[in-house]
Fold this sequence. Notes:
In chain A, 64% of the residues lie in helices and 12% in strands. By secondary structure, chain A is an alpha/beta fold.
Amino acid sequence: MAGGQERILRGRIRSVQATKKITRAMELIAASRIVKAQQRVIAAVPYSEMITEVVKDLAASGAGSDSPFLKTREEVKTTCYVTITADRGLCGGYNSGVMRATEGEIKADVLAGKDYLVVPVGRKAESYFRFRGYNMGSGFAGFSDAPGYSDAKSIGEYVVDLYVKGIVDRVELVYTRFVSAGTQEVVRRPLVPLDSAVVEGGDGKSAANSDYEFEPDPSVILETLLPRYVEARVYAALLNAAASEHAARQRAMKSATDNAEELIKTLSRIMNRARQDSITTEIMEIVGGAEALGSGKSA
Amino acid sequence: MASTGALRVELVSPERVLFSGEAKQVVTRTLDGGEIAFLPGHIAFLGALTECHTRIYLVDGKVQDVAVHGGFVEVAPDHVTILSDSAELAEAIDVVRARAAKERAETAMRGEHDATVESALRRAHARLSASGGLTETRAAH
């Protein structure tokens, strides 16, 4: 019966409309959070710049040339990948981009006969790597949309510990860098040991100030400073990832909303036609019935 | 170097710049080194800080008290930068909470000495000292 089809279509339209309301809300929420996340990224810049400056100054003074953080190990057997993803999905290709990049690195390592260890940050990475049976260290999750410094601190302490104990010989961060609301890119950055370019690339300023006075002596300062530096790097990566997550979610939800609108349009068109058809059929039936009755009377 | 002018002071935490302004003098405490004061024209200096009550003497005569819970200080003749993973301006300190934390830590210290309790005590002490709550506690005792 034609009326049945109309009812089914009406139900589908209602369900798509409900979904659209949800995706629209998520889009708006994500859009408002991008701004906040971006401000956090900017607010964290002075600290990370200054701590980099201090590391450079210390390295320029010759301190810590024997610090394990600054020396690349001769034989890198195990690489640790800190993969930063979101806790939730519904953000387009954001999570899979980071995880695919990590997986590519791991495969290259395995091919080269080397070991790896994944430290997943964010629930998505954790479930992805656990499900596929990769070697995993501790996971960190529950803060992807608004990471605090304490989260970065716990991750930093954990990887520094892995490195110092010799469980891993190199730590790399894989995350999504926030370039602008329109562009984000998946990047891989060495975390420990520190990039020698960071340490040696002393600008004019640090060279001029290399006659620093230290208290306590430089190597002690460096020892306490480097873990902080690692934490600051992790923190910056977390903030970038959070901003990227919101941007990716906003985009994904915008296209979901657009698709829902499109679907509603198509479905209403089909429904209207079905209704028209059923009305036409009904009129035909009435006319036919009346005619049959009329002809019966006159006969 | 001329010791005229003022020090440009910046107190930076990973999350944001907590304080920035012109000062005549900055007093803080280095790791194992004791208290140290910086005046304009100080030689380039780099130090690791312990939990302490840092005082920033502003050009307009006011004093900005800060509880710095470890960090670093970088000094040049015309500026002082304090980097700290956790620092609190005196205005933001909850004196009641700090006092409770101090008492808790002191009770714990009577039992056994342990590094975390000790640093908790030092933090509480720095907070109270910066917020001016320390003298009141003494009076109450």
